[in-house]
């Protein structure tokens, strides 16, 4: 018997209306829930009825969904740490601001990452044996190499894709009429995130044999950490394609807005509207501005003071840091250090 840490009705309100990434709110609100009784799924029903059914049928999977939400939040913030838009607004989940609700590049990135994360978490959970409905399954059908054999326990990507898509896409698919362009963009970006994840499935090996001689190798198919997927998706974000939703033949499709531009690839991230530069606060556009952000004076990258402060300049201040220093090894077996104080210069945007 587990009791939700948050009263169900409150959570229901927090989750608000249906959209594809509202479930990221579970990063916080879902972590205290046991997810072992079907009434816990009522907490999700506020998002969309399909979630309720998916949840009830796969109650065990909810722990993976909650983990995926938390991993999406931290991977996004880490990946965008030095950028003008630094993903801090993802913490508002489930009541996002305009930067993530409209068809922006930033929204494209978060939708792709969230879709990849839920698939990733489920595929991993299958392999670790924590989901009764799936397993790490049999060895890949391709023949092993001359120097290794299949073994270990691979991540169950196919199961993760199946259930992950059901989870990430269902609220978009059922979000009613209107705004079909935005819906098509969300679906495309979610699928792109899953495709990038699938492409990253790789053969991983472990060596055996006398003192690590690697005379025997066992290999399996495994996924990299979500951080690696997030940086791959950040390159896609930087190269994202602006699209329109246009009637082509009998149905509407997403096509690059600039005519003559190459065709869309499955793994392209797509967006509908240009983002602000995020330099100055603008509430209707979801920009927080970069005033008081810490910047790096010697970097020419996005975290450098020039770019991050948008040419406004910066203020310097000194901060005292206390560090371990003059460490000595004592026989046997400890290290003793002194504490030193040092002044460091820091810079914040004007
Ligand atoms: C994944 O789980 C499904 C469902 O249990 C199973 O049929 C399959 O063999 C598993 N393994 C892989 C690699 O797909
Ligand atoms: C991210 O940006 C916001 C708005 O500029 C700022 O308030 C916040 O401190 C930043 N977060 C980090 C970790 O730098
Ligand atoms: C600032 O940027 C420089 C050059 O990219 C780098 O070597 C240095 O470690 C950075 N400093 C901090 C505090 O991140």
Task: Summarize, please.
The chain is 36% helix and 20% strand. It contains eleven helices and eleven strands.
Task: Give the helices and strands, then pairings.
Blueprint: H1 8-15, H2 26-29, H3 42-45, H4 49-57, H5 62-79, H6 98-101, H7 105-128, E1 149-150, H8 157-173, H9 180-199, E2 202-208, E3 216-222, H10 226-238, E4 241-248, E5 251-256, E6 270-271, E7 281-282, E8 287-288, E9 294-295, H11 305-308, E10 314-330, E11 334-349
Parallel strand pairs: 1-3, 4-6
Antiparallel strand pairs: 2-3, 4-5, 7-8, 9-11, 10-11
Helix pairs in contact: 4-8, 5-7, 5-10, 7-8, 7-9, 7-10, 8-9
This protein binds 2-acetamido-2-deoxy-beta-D-glucopyranose (3 copies).
Search tags:
binds 2-acetamido-2-deoxy-beta-D-glucopyranose, 2 domains, three-stranded mixed β-sheet, about 350 residues, alpha+beta, about 20% strand, Endo-n-acetylneuraminidase fold, disordered N terminus
Can you walk through the features of this model?
With 350 residues, the chain is an alpha+beta fold. The chain folds into two domains: 8-286, no CATH class; 290-350, Endo-n-acetylneuraminidase fold. It contains eleven helices and eleven strands. The protein has helices at residues 8-15, 26-29, 42-45, 49-57, 62-79, 98-101, 105-128, 157-173, 180-199, 226-238, 305-308, and strands at residues 149-150, 202-208, 216-222, 241-248, 251-256, 270-271, 281-282, 287-288, 294-295, 314-330, 334-349. A three-stranded mixed sheet has the order 1-3-2, with no helix packed on it. Strand 2 and strand 3 form a beta hairpin. Helix 5 packs across helix 7 (105-128), helix 7 (105-128) runs antiparallel to helix 10 (226-238) and helix 8 runs antiparallel to helix 9. The longest helix has 24 residues, at 105-128. Residues 296, 298-299 line the site of one 2-acetamido-2-deoxy-beta-D-glucopyranose. Pfam families: wnt (PF00110). One of its GO terms (cellular component) is extracellular space. InterPro entries: Wnt, Wnt_C, Wnt_CS. This is Protein Wnt.
């Amino acid at each position: 018997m587990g009791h939700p840490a948050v009263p169900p009705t409150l959570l229901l309100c927090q989750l608000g209306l249906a959209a594809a990434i509202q479930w990221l709110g579970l990063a916080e609100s879902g972590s205290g829930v046991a997810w072992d009784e079907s009434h816990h799924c009522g907490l999700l029903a506020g998002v969309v009825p399909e979630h309720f059914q998916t949840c009830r049928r796969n109650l065990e999977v909810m722990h993976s969904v909650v983990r995926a939400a938390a991993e999406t939040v931290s991977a996004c913030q880490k990946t965008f740490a030095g950028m003008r838009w630094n993903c801090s607004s993802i913490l508002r989940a489930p009541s996002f601001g305009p930067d993530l609700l409209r068809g922006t590049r930033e929204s494209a990135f978060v939708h792709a990452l969230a879709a990849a994360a839920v698939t990733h978490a489920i595929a991993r959970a299958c392999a670790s044996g924590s989901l009764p409905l799936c397993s790490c399954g049999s060895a890949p059908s391709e023949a092993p190499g001359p120097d290794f054999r299949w073994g270990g326990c691979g991540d169950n990507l196919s199961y993760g894709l199946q259930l992950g898509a059901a989870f990430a896409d269902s609220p978009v698919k059922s979000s009613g009429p209107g705004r079909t362009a935005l819906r098509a963009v969300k679906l495309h970006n979610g699928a792109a995130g899953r495709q990038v994840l699938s492409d990253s499935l790789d053969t991983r090996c472990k060596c055996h044999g006398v003192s690590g001689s690697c005379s025997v190798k066992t290999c399996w198919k495994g996924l990299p950490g979500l951080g690696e997927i997030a940086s791959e998706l950040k390159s896609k974000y930087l190269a994202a394609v602006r699209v329109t939703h246009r009637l082509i033949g009998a149905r509407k499709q997403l096509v690059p807005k600039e005519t003559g531009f190459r065709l869309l690839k499955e793994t392209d991230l797509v967006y509908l509207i240009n983002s602000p530069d995020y330099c100055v606060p603008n509430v209707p556009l979801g920009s927080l501005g970069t005033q008081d952000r810490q910047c790096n004076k010697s970097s020419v990258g996005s975290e450098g003071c020039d770019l991050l402060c948008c040419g406004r300049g910066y203020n310097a201040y000194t901060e005292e840091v206390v560090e371990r220093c003059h460490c000595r090894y004592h026989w046997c077996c400890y290290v003793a250090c002194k504490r030193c104080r040092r002044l460091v210069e820091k810079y914040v945007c004007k």
